[in-house]
Structures are given as structure tokens and as C-alpha cells.
Specification:
Elements: E1 6-10, E2 13-19, E3 32-33, H1 35-46, E4 57-58, H2 60-73, E5 87-89, E6 93-98, E7 111-115, E8 119-125, E9 137-141, E10 147-155, E11 185-191, E12 207-211, E13 219-222, E14 226-228, E15 234-238, E16 249-259, E17 262-266
Length: about 280
């Protein structure tokens, strides 16, 4: 639902959505002041109504604009707006559940809603807590194989453990077992700026790859190209320039990041374009 659209109807009269942070808690009419007045005028202006100044003062011009809006909605054009005549929310909403039943008295909760922006929730193992912070980049893989770029917006501080993870589910170890702190997780929320990349999925299991660190302009080789040296450390075998089958030479390397089966390497004798032996 967007600004100005009906959220529900009472006695066959639509109750529209307005954007703002102050709900309508009184009947607004000429010569009244307050933040609720500004909410009404902000929304009227955004919907294209004119004849008033957007401020905290409800003037006769504001009342005239409300009358025009009410006529467009098909409800009595009183020029007065009050509780129950509009719903105020921070922005566009998506209905999650409907609690009211048509025909019953309009009392109690009518519905529950969420924002329209879809987000991703991850249970992060606590051992990786130091690698993730607000702003950390991530890639989300959807069930259909497509991906979307995401960014961490919140890292929770209350750890929890999955049911049966070394305990009886009540915060105490079960008899004969010991609690396993490494099973604890922290809730992590991620935003997806390009919502269209999520397709039509409203809820789905996804695979999230968090980028804790990035490097650019580095040299990398397959991990299985590494050769452990007897004196310690690692080397790579460079393809020899002699006849086929002749041995190459081993060049020590300093290791950097490991990712996706490859490892960053550097060293005084390591340069771009080297042909490296990779065992099959």
C-alpha cells in the first residue's frame, strides 16, 4: 500500500494511508496547530492538493484541500480529519496478516503489516563475529540460482543456540551433555538495495556469502598448487622451459587470503604470467 491508498474500509468508507510519525489523535479543523497538522498537510501536498502552506497550522485552505480529498475518496467532505479517518505509517506498507472479520465491530487490531522492502536475515556463528560489521558487503544466492548484492545493516548482540545444540533448550546443558558455545549464533540483518534482483520471492531460504575482506591487484593460484617446504613455508612449482616433462623450479611464496579454492601469493620471484604446475 502506498500513500493515499485505502488500507481498509469502515462502514464502506475507505481509510487511507498517510506517511508520517505522528498519528491522528484528535479531530483537526481550522485554527488548530501541531505535528499532526503537518502530517496531514505534507501528505495532501504530496498527493497534489494545493491552497495551503505546509506547516503546523490548520487553516481554512487546509480544510478546503481536505474537502477536495474527501470528495475524491467518496466520503463525506467535512474538511475535518481525525482518528479512524486515516492510518499513519512511516512509509509504504505490506499487509502481513488480517485480524478483523468483515461484518464485525471495528474494534481491536485490524491487521499487521511490514515495510515493503524485503530484507535478509542470517544466523551468524559467533566465531565469525569479528569479521562482520555494519556495512559489510555480501552476496545473496536465491533458490533459482540468481544472485543479489546485499549489505549488513545490523549485527545483533544477543547470542542464541539452536534447539538441541548441546543443551536441553532451556538455557542449561542437558544431563550427560555439555553446552557448546561454538554453536551459538547472532542475528544479522542485511539490506538488498536492488529489490528487483529478488524477483517475486517474498520468503525463501537463501545462501549468503559475507565479504569480510577484499584485495585488489593481487596474484593468486589454485590452493593445490602450493608445495610445503621441508624447512617450513610454501612454494609453487613453475613450469620448466626445457623439454616436455623436465622439472621446473620451486619458488617460495608468501600466502595471503584464501577464497573459492584459490590463494593470494607474493614473493621476489613471483610475477604475473608465470605458468604454475597444478597437480591433478
Amino acid at each position: 500500500m502506498e500513500r493515499g491508498k485505502p488500507v481498509y474500509a469502515v462502514d464502506e468508507q475507505p481509510v487511507p494511508l498517510l506517511y508520517g510519525s505522528t498519528p491522528l489523535y484528535r479531530d483537526l479543523s481550522a485554527d488548530m496547530d501541531g505535528q499532526d497538522v503537518r502530517v496531514v498537510e505534507d501528505n495532501l501536498a504530496a498527493l497534489g492538493y494545493t491552497g495551503f502552506t505546509v506547516d503546523d497550522h490548520y487553516t481554512s485552505g487546509t480544510a478546503d484541500a481536505v474537502r477536495k480529498w474527501q470528495r475524491d475518496l467518496g466520503i463525506p467532505d467535512t474538511g475535518i480529519l481525525g482518528p479512524g479517518r486515516a492510518v499513519v505509517a512511516p512509509g509504504a506498507r505490506r499487509v502481513a496478516t488480517v485480524a478483523a472479520t468483515p461484518g464485525r465491530a471495528a474494534a481491536g487490531p485490524v491487521l499487521t503489516w511490514t515495510g515493503t522492502e524485503r530484507t535478509v536475515a542470517v544466523d551468524l556463528n559467533v566465531q565469525y563475529e569479528d569479521l562482520v560489521q555494519t556495512g559489510t558487503k555480501a552476496t545473496v544466492k536465491l533458490p533459482d540460482g540468481t544472485t543479489a548484492e546485499a549489505q549488513v545493516t545490523d549485527v545483533g548482540t544477543a547470542a542464541s543456540a539452536p534447539p538441541g545444540a548441546g543443551g536441553a533448550g532451556n538455557g542449561r546443558p542437558a544431563e550427560g551433555t555439555s553446552a557448546r558455545p561454538q554453536d551459538a549464533t547472532l542475528p544479522v540483518a542485511l539490506a538488498v538495495p536492488q529489490q528487483d534482483r529478488l524477483g517475486r520471492f517474498q520468503a525463501a531460504p537463501v545462501e549468503v556469502t559475507l565479504v569480510a575482506e577484499t584485495r585488489s591487484n593481487v596474484l593468486a593460484v589454485p590452493i593445490n598448487a602450493l608445495v610445503a617446504l621441508r624447512e617450513g613455508g610454501y612454494a609453487i612449482e613453475v613450469v620448466g622451459t626445457g623439454p616436455p616433462g623436465s622439472p621446473g623450479d620451486y619458488r617460495p611464496v608468501t600466502l595471503g587470503m584464501f577464497v573459492n579454492g584459490r590463494v593470494e601469493v607474493s614473493g621476489p620471484d613471483i610475477a604475473q604470467g608465470l605458468a604454475v604446475v597444478v597437480p591433478r
